[in-house]
Amino acid sequence: MANREKDGGSRKDKRASPRVLREREQRRQTRARVAEAAYAASADDSGPWPADSWMATELAGGRGWVVQGDRRRECAVPARLAREFGGVLAIGDRVRLDPTETSVIERLPRRNHLARKRSDRTRQSGGGAQEHSLAANVDLAVVVAALADPPFHPRLIDRFLIMAQHGGIQPLICLNKCELGEPPPELAIYAGLGVPVVMASAHTGTGLDRLRASLQGKSSVLVGHSGVGKSSLVNALLGSAMATVGAISEKSNRGRHTTTAAQAHRLGADTYLFDTPGIRSWGLWAIQPSELQAYFSEFAGPAAECRYRDCTHRAEPGCGVRAALEAGAISAARFDSYNRLFDE
Ligand code: GDP
Ligand code: ZN
Q1: Could you tell me which of 154, 171, 224, 257 has the fewest CB atoms within 10 Å of its CB?
Q2: What is the mean pLDDT of residues 249-254?
Q3: CA of 169 to the centre of ligand 2 (A)
């Protein structure tokens, strides 16, 4: 995200260039989408899925597993269809099957999806960045962080919040390992931004009831860096009734299906939890530097004071956001997040 032109800034009192107008409109739309995602009740608002649709829980080598209530089918996913979908199915995708229930014939339009940037240089695709849909049709993204071990960093949370909000998915922060100490003061930032926070411990069971209640009746995806306790939380939530219904595996560059990218667990009749174990890189996909500030909603007020309409709040003179930072009205951790993601 580096190397933006810095000298194209327009003074507010001059007429804005088309590029500035375009970027301004883009930021306005992003802010609206982010606000909507933070407060949306759930994606269920758009009504139930058709009764004859199935949910994809697993896909490998042209075959997949789909579920519909208590029914589960293994079926073919013709390569032609995967091309029509613009890629493989993701966990949570709703599909229709042929009358014999042995082949996927249609993918229903996605309500949303959680995407990351996959830049695996060993892939046959030529090594460029690719979009990877981790999960589709998700009501809630549970951003898991640990109070300690690995150390708590707002920066790590910010990345996942942006991924969720970019996908139009309501986020919830789950701070695991909460028995290890006092809650970090930075957590208050997120409550202030309207993001629910659940203090939890997979080890002691603290907060699991609250977490379960938040997941009830939804499809949720767990995201977070490895080691924060995602698998432990899944196990604690599932208890003894292991109910992993499937996993999406990816083809490795040797053509074997080895890497597990997402797993579907069924917690109840309409309650699914998608886990994303073993994913190491969580690059943001399709978010322009100029758009990034829209995800930092607390910047919006101070940004109105910036001398330049298209201020990036990095080095421009007369920046309202940096003034707010110096005055302590914007958190240094959040500003640091913004800068790092901007440079990525
Ligand atoms: P994942 O990589 O996010 O799936 O994390 P894991 O579930 O594998 O957990 C990583 C490590 O953290 C393991 O050693 C767990 O035993 C430990 N862990 C998980 N949950 C807790 C917790 O609530 N408290 C403490 N102290 N450790 C935990
Ligand atoms: Zn500024």
Answers
A1: 257
A2: 43
A3: 28
